[in-house]
Amino acid sequence: MVVVPLILGTDENSYTQARAYHEAYGRQAVVCGAGILAPFYHTKIAQVHARAGFSSDVDVFAGLLNEVWASRNSDIDNFLMIAPTEEYLHMLYRALDLLDFSPVMPYPDAELGVALMDKSYFYARMKKLNIAVPQTLIAGPDNFSSQVLAGEQFIKADDYETFNSFDFPEKHKGFYAQNADEARDYLSAVFASGFTGNMLVQTFISGDNTQEFSVNGYRSADGRTVFVQARSVLTDTRPMWVGNHLLLTDTDRPDLQDLCQRAVGGLGYIGFFNIDFKADVNSDVPYMLEMNTRLGRSSYYGLLNGVNFVEHAINDAEGKEFPEVVRRPFSWITALRSQVANQLSGVALEYFMDTVRYANTGNALDYGFDDDPVRIQRLTKLRESIGRNLGW
């Protein structure tokens, strides 16, 4: 049986999965998107198909997938679908009945997958599994004045996809409020924008970003699960990127693995996932913040650690055992090594500069095999611009 990844979109997350496949098999993945973004510009590791409207029109989406299937169904048995965002996964669920083939879906069924995109549903399920989550109030346009907490709190949209389509000056991906008054002011601005969905108002878990952890993983239908953990060292503080990781390093907390196993097992979850935690700086209790029904944007740290999630999913689809794993220390970065090092000092800098870890530092886009000069030039400019935008 031959299963080839069909990757949706052309962003960095999509490239990460194409690279994972190429590293494991030395072959090109198939990629479909609305256009060709920098990661796949002049790429050697994927067959890229682009069509306007692919990310927004389900008929265009399904049409292109069917065309690609017709061109490949004589030499492969199936496509393994890979979605880099919840938006693409949602589109894929909607398109399944329009496809001329039945792809391998390394994701939960549509009912659970769509439900988990609603954060309030996720928190309710975790509470039933006795997994610690932040105290959460649900604020709507008619009751937000009363749905705030007394002390420090963090506010984010229940449905981020819809929230992100509204623009207003105070907009934040996630908003930290020191008190009830700041929370009310922000919520007032949110609902004045015309947004009518729900906002989640949560107890702020004490500590800075170094108390945050990311876990990526894959779970098979028969319950075999592989995890990779990472700890945050640097994060983005810009309003619409707040909380996005800039530097992640290896870590090993057995309690996080146990909590993830309880979560995916209790949900009956199958496929790729990404779970975020924050450990209270005073009690060290880890709180589960959210679960993404996909691999995270930073999932390349799995490859750095020695786990190829795409290879695991393909082996699973082809009825083979999971590949063996040899763990390695790592640092996952978004900017240049020198830019990152300049932001560190003391113990954090020593950890980053450790000889073995520093040698295993990188980002998925920096793939030596994919060495077209035009691509490298474009990515270099992209990295430099990221540093400038961050003020580095």
Automatic annotation (TrEMBL):
Domain ATP-grasp stretches: 123-318
UniProtKB keywords: ATP-binding, Nucleotide-binding
Coiled coil residues, start to end: none
Cross-referenced Pfam families: CPSase_L_D2 (PF02786)
Name of the featured protein: ATP-grasp domain-containing protein
Species, as recorded: Arcanobacterium phocisimile
